[in-house]
Protein: Phosphoenolpyruvate carboxykinase (ATP)
Amino acid sequence: MQDLELKSAKKSLSELGIQNASGVMWNLSPAELVEQALLNQEAVLTDNGALMADTGTFTGRSPKDRYIVKDNNTSESVWWGDVNIAFDEEKFEYLHQKMINFLADKKLYVREAYAGADENYRLNLTIINTLAWQNLFCYNMFLRPSVEELEHFESNFTIICAPEFEADPEVDGTRQKNFAIINLTKRIILIGGTAYAGEMKKGIFSVLNYILPHERNVLSMHCSANVGEKGDTAIFFGLSGTGKTTLSADPNRGLIGDDEHGWTEDTVFNFEGGCYAKVIDLSREKEPEIWDAIKFGAIVENTRFYENSRTVDYTNKSVTENTRTAYPIHHIKNAIEPSIAGIPKNIFFLTADAFGVIPPISKLNKSQAMYHFISGYTAKVAGTEVGVTEPKTTFSACFGAAFLPLHPTKYAELFGEKMEKHQVNVWLINTGWTGGPYGVGSRMKLKYTRAMITAALNGELDNVSYRKHSVFGVSIPESCPNVPAEVLSPRATWSDKDAYDRKARELGAEFISNFEKYKAFATEDILAGSPNL
Ligand code: ATP
Ligand code: MN
Structure:
């Protein structure tokens, strides 16, 4: 076991300016961290062996409190705006020092880990946590160096995450008490005032989304990935909740990763060492791989038990809809390690179209692929307000604008180059509504979505007939193994055909108006992929 005897006495935080009197625990094993988390009363144990933790006020990331330090190095390269909010260099120094002082009398859990399965493109992280369960989260989600590697581990990026530490907005220049600040030059992320562990994961993702395309000509992607027996890689782009994690866990294919990958000249590699899956309404029947991954070592976040038991009730939404589990990738039986495979043969764009307009599966030509990649469409279903059933469109460039420090055109260019160079099939998959919009129709059955993806991967859609969608122009297969033919045509599933046509044109118009801001950068070729009203 690589976990044993790692408490190397030589290691010290003083290089990072941290003088700590209360004890620093380096690279604890999962069992030790579970023990610490329970002793500290940070978390409780579930009857499946997983640790259950609450993340407090924040049950998701807080995008408005995520900053990037603006300095000589980043002022020209970062795409500043609502997503990449500039933070003052000196204020960062001040806050950093304040955090270091804060840590002096705290019990600290420190972990050394990699981000990036390909050793040519990885970051060597030192992660400093005040909470043991968060350090376990990092064990699960980042890559675990071997005992030998830890002996010579040279860190080149630091995360300091102290949920109990709150900023003073007046003095520190933050919006609120909580913050996640990335300093790309000093190579530090500071997180305070929030215990949502996903801030660490997505913070490092943002860093790699800067470094890899900017400095290494590697396309970084918000996608999941798996690989077939013949070595055929598939990647699945999509915004939150569209099915990246769910659909990449496929018993017949090796899992590469569920969320963050890089595409080099000849490989696709995972940035992470684990998965972070939604568990709302999780069932063993529908998602056996994820269900079985929740065992000792895994963490479940913001879930609740059935009364008088330690059995997790996955239907319980009383804390949040965004209940999650974090587990190391080897909890999935057919995960491949190292998480690296060849360049993709099939690319899937996942969208949860709550209007029920987008076909459940369609094939895109190169123009449409570029157009949909840049658009990054999905829909959010209505909130809890009574009587409000109308969903809302969400467009997020490259299916991940929230994590992209560079202008979207940088990622789009790399994506276009790679598509040009390699023979890739690009598919658009609607995991959202069928038979009408949200409130009228129902969510596409998971087993149908899986069957469509399997058919595409096995080449079973290569020789069927296709017809073009009236508005989006994408090619819809007229048959697909294990899927009733009527499911394939969204218009056929609506009882009111005129209503469908109207909705399709409305959605097309939203695509076009969203694309206005990219028109200046887009070629004629890309614009040829736009909907036709
Ligand atoms: P994130 O980026 O937040 O991790 P994600 O893209 O990984 O999001 P998933 O965790 O895979 O999203 O969530 C998809 C959710 O939708 C799961 O809870 C899954 O059970 C549910 N679902 C229902 N129907 C389908 C379908 N047809 N295809 C995919 N997922 C479906
Ligand atoms: Mn996911």
